[in-house]
Amino acid sequence: MSRVFHRHTREELPSAAKGEGCYIVDTDGKRYLDASGGAAVSCLGHSHPAVQTAIREQLEQISFAHTGFFSNPPMEALADILIDQAPEGLERVYFVSGGSEAMEAAVKMARQYFLEIGQKQRTKLIARRQSYHGNTLGALSLGGNMWRREPFQPILLENAHHIAPCYAYRDKRHDESEEAYGLRAANELEKKILELGSDTVAAFACEPVVGATAGALPAVPGYLKRIREICDQYGVLLIFDEVMCGMGRTGHLFACAEDGVSPDLLCIAKGLGAGYQPIGALLVAGKIFNAIQQGSGFFQHGHTYMGHPLACAAALAVQKVIRDENLLENVQRRGAELRAALEERFGNHHFVGDIRGRGLFIGIELVADRASKQPFDPKLALHNKIKKKAMQEGLICYPGGGTIDGQQGNHILLAPPFIIDETHIAEIVDKLGRVLDSVFAEAKAVA
Ligand code: PMP
Fold it and tell me: Which domains does the chain have, with CATH numbers?
């Protein structure tokens, strides 16, 4: 009997014994194609020799030196490689151990920035519904996934407010262009800022491409530009959460680069270390760093394992492989191929409402009725069935049940390693086809 407190206490999980490129092998020898990189993490696949070597070599030097006392060479080198490629204005990197920690740091840094510049009345935060920013209390307060928030609502931050997501499939009117919809959706931010009092808002946070709660949902063109304008107009800091969509997942190192928009604070994690070590980071605009440096002189925050040398060495190796092997090109090319193959197999499927995404970050939204976009009854718990069936088939995908105005909607997120080739694409579509055929046959029987 396992003594581990697993996430799902009633479920027996296979035990992962080995990683081989795009596959995970369990202790019984069964192979699983990792079509979601876990949760958009394993962008280089598993057991990459260059990353293994980098970790081993760093281990022989030093594995831990507290950042209160020391910097360390892999941390410095990783900061250089990130800032060299970062969106304009981002000049410093604050290292942490994961996505939630990055978001917590972003919120606290935004608050401290306003204290440093003498605007202590800026205490309010705005984020979007149908978003996920992490499970720690601050990050959860920002997130707009009502199912995740509900049990903890009484102990969440009271100053976090929400606006609608940019969700063209559900919210764009038929007679409206994408651009017009994007402006309308972004202008909700202005309305909310004015409603709360424009000089009381500290920051707005969003995922440029929504991941876990909506299944790879990109903003429409122009949306993020308008968001940036509104933040500038009212002196509000803009936080992009690229924990899932960043670090090459969309075919660009930073998803927001495609929209031509730079935030003031940018959070990354998953693909940064590709799962080889736990690591996250917060990229910080020069003006924020300068205000803190010239003000109190230190950021009043910190964690024991930040800037961990082994984690930084692993992430540095991951980023070098991506750069040296030109993997972002593969993300764009294979992403287009996977998308086309999914369109061909599921594009006219009665239960498939939308296939969307960017690069190798693809979402399939499942609906009970294609014409009305009616979501499946949440009681069916379709996402659990899809995950279970997929694991039986030897496929790791990331099905979710998001929240659509209080209702549950279903989607499947695909985020395979950047190294996939055409055989993996064929295997993903084939296995997913069998999974959905079987789950939908069951759903129909129940309906
Ligand atoms: N933000 C986003 C967009 C995420 O997808 C996640 C993780 N799914 C997080 C934050 C939290 O990251 P972590 O689980 O590493 O704390």
Answer: 16-47+326-446 (3.90.1150.10), 52-324 (3.40.640.10)
